[in-house]
Every structure is written in C-alpha cells, then in structure tokens.
Specification:
Blueprint: H1 17-20, E1 27-28, H2 40-52, H3 66-79, E2 88-91, H4 94-105, E3 111-116, H5 122-128, E4 132-137, E5 139-140, E6 146-147, H6 150-156, E7 161-167, H7 179-192, E8 195-199, H8 220-223, E9 226-230, H9 233-236, E10 244-247, H10 251-261, H11 270-282, H12 284-308, E11 313-314, E12 322-326, H13 336-344, E13 346-347, E14 349-350, E15 361-365, H14 370-385
Parallel strand pairs: 1-13, 3-4, 3-7, 7-8, 8-9
Antiparallel strand pairs: 2-10, 5-6, 9-10, 11-12, 12-15, 14-15
Helix pairs in contact: 2-11, 3-11, 4-5, 4-10, 12-14, 13-14
Length: 388
C-alpha cells in the first residue's frame, strides 16, 4: 500500500491537544505527535475490536498473548538482543515507567541524574518520588553537535546517585548515541552502583546512516542493571492510545517495578494493546514510507533554515522528528517561542522548558505534511524580517 503523507487532514475537530491548545490561526509544530494517519492495519484492527462492542479490562492471555512474543522477536531481529516474554512489562507510558522506576528505587536523599537539555517530564521525576534531582549538561560544539563531557559525567554521579535516566535517541537534541558512548556510560554506572533507566521511545525513528543500540543489549551485566522503556506510540503515531512497555531482565528489579505500580499505574488501554500488536506485526510498510518522508522533511527544513532564517542554526537530527533550533543569534527581543507564537502564529516548544542549556532554543516538530511545514517556515521567515 502506498501512503500519502502530503494529505492535510483537519485535526481541530478531533480533540487534539496539539491543535486545540492555541487559537485557530496558529500552526502547531510543538507536541510530539504526527499529523499523519496511523498504518491501515492498525486502524483496521481497532475497527474490529470496536465492532465487538464490549470494552472491559484487557488481558494479555488471550489473542493479545502474542504481543510479548512479538516484542521478544522484534528485539532479536532488530538488535540481536535476547530477552524473554517474562522480561516485558506493559505500562501506560514511558514517562509512567520512569516514574515507577524512581518510586521503586527511592530512598532518603537518593539522587536521579539526567542530561539536559532533555524532555521536560524528566526534570520533575526525582521530586515526584521524593528523590534529589541531579543534572549535567550535554556539551554543544560550535557546529551544533552534542556530546558527553566524560569528566563531568563521572563527577555528576555522586554517592547519592541511585538512577541515571538516559534518553536515546535524545529528545530534544536528536543525537543517536554510538556504541562506544553507551558502553562508557554503562561502565561508569556499573562501577558506581547506579541503575540505568533508558528512554528509547524514538528508537525506530532514525535517519540514514544511524542505528539504534539498546544500552541493555551490550552485555548481560549491563542488562541486569537496566530498565529499558520503549513503545509503538511515537513510531506509529498512536500516542493517545497509551501503550508502552518496560524490558527488565533483572527479576528482582522487575518485581520492584510491579510493586511500585500498584495503586499508581492503571491498566494499559485495551485499544493500545490491540494497536501495538497490529503495528508491530503489520506496520512495517508504513514505517518504511514515513521514515523516507520524515527524512525529506528534515532535509527541507535544514535547507530552509540555512537559507531563510538569519541567525537561526540547526544541526540535522540523527533520529526523532524533532528539530532543535538555536535562535540565539537571531536578535529576538524575547524568548524565541514567545516571538514565533506572537509574530508568526507558529507554536513551538520553548527551549528553556527542557532545562539548562535550552535557553534561546526552540523545538520544532516536522512530523507533518510538507505544505504545513512550508507555511510555518514562511511565517517564521516573515516574522524575522520584521526585526530588520
């Protein structure tokens, strides 16, 4: 089947937070969902379940018992990573999973280390569990690439640190960490007795020349020290269906997460489980096509920024459909998110909401039809011209 990602579908009447958060004249390129229909097999599977007409509590012991096995097969096929169905815990969301890990490992004065700028909910996870927030800033080079200062990483992990939250592929900077980087982070965490909680929700959304490596797949010792969080939600545009999973090969740690979830994490959405199974079993054709479209959008965006947005700089993301725009040289008199919302009627994520290192940046979601992206960029260009 050939999918048409150029088709613009009106989303304002669909109760979309992305489109309903702002006034009708604002183009929203902020929250990370795409303006594309999900794969046809996913839509078909949901229709079939709806036609049943009964929406009780879900079970993964019937038809959906295939889902853990599908996840196991997927990890082996994509990454050569051997896990078992027992290692897989289904949860309502990746953010939920990281919060559960914090609650499971919480102790007085225990710390949670994050690498900023980073996905906004990470900034609150330590306090949610009564833990201490610890931060280290990723280092940005002159060409806009981000890397880890290893001396700073070592120093950031103190005797207090209980959990290191990794984001790979990284949101918002778009880095896909290499094997050597992952191995070095894992070695430091093992040596210092720190559990790794790895958000890998964008693992399927990689561009040419880049390969995702789950940090837990590096070796058995690292796997025993890691909670890996993945989901079909970003990949297949089904975020609203609330279905994610944790892979925890350490049985004791897995049981702690289960116990932490009691009374905190509810049932996984039945429709989310149905959609996840259909997506992983039959969504490959759609994914191949959407990746090509997203990469073309990324390249179009990078070219437009370089040619038409003076003072704005963009490093092409290696993964995700999120661009991290450096607006510090554009002469904008306020925060760039405020400026583009007021002057261009384009909604972006304000960089300072991603923590230290995000000031003067915006995050732009290019998971949309090219026409939508083009219109938004032309509005941003016109707004910057008013500064001259």
């Amino acid at each position: 089947m050939i999918y048409n990602f150029d088709r613009v579908i009106p989303r304002r009447p669909t109760d979309s937070i992305k489109w309903n958060q702002y006034e009708a004249d604002v183009l929203p390129l902020w929250v990370a969902d795409m303006d594309f229909p999900s794969p046809e097999p996913v839509i078909r599977a949901l229709h079939e379940r709806v036609e049943q007409g009964i929406f009780g509590y879900p079970s993964t012991h019937g038809t959906l018992s295939q889902l853990p096995v599908v996840v196991v097969d997927r990890m082996q096929r994509l990454y050569g990573w051997q896990i078992t169905p027992e290692d897989v815990l289904f949860i309502p969301g990746v953010v939920t999973g990281i919060n559960l890990a914090c609650h499971a490992l919480s102790a007085p004065e225990a710390g949670v280390l994050i690498q900023t700028p980073v996905y906004m909910p990470f900034l609150r996870m330590a306090s949610n569990a009564g833990m201490v927030a610890q931060e280290m800033e990723l280092t940005r080079s002159e060409d806009g690439d981000y890397h880890i200062d290893w001396d700073a990483f070592e120093q950031a992990i103190t005797a207090q640190t209980r959990i290191f939250v990794l984001c790979n592929p990284h949101n918002p900077v778009g880095r896909v960490f290499r094997k050597a980087e992952l191995a070095r982070m894992a070695e430091v965490c093992l040596r210092k007795g720190v559990v790794i909680c790895s958000d890998e929700i964008h693992c399927d959304l990689l561009f040419s020349g880049h390969k995702h490596i789950p940090i837990a797949s590096l070796d058995a010792e690292i796997a025993q020290n890691t909670v890996t969080l993945m989901a079909p939600s970003k990949t297949y545009n089904i975020a609203g269906l609330q279905c994610s999973f944790a892979i925890v090969q350490n049985a004791e740690l897995r049981e702690k997460l289960k116990q932490a979830g009691k009374g905190l994490a509810g049932w996984v959405n039945m429709m989310g489980l149905v959609a996840a199974l259909a997506a992983y079993q039959e969504g490959g054709e759609w994914l191949e096509q959407v990746l090509l479209y997203l990469e073309a959008n990324r390249n179009y965006l990078a070219k437009f920024v370089a040619q038409n947005l003076p003072g704005v700089h963009m490093r092409r993301p290696e993964g995700t459909y999120l661009a991290w725009l450096d607006c510090r040289g554009a002469g904008i008199p306020c925060t760039p998110g405020q400026f583009f919302l007021r002057q261009a009627h384009v909604a972006l994520n304000e960089g300072n909401t991603f923590g230290k290192g995000g000031e003067g940046f915006v995050r732009l979601n290019f998971g949309c039809p090219r026409a939508t992206l083009r219109t938004a960029l032309e509005r941003m260009q016109a707004a910057l011209q008013l500064l001259d």
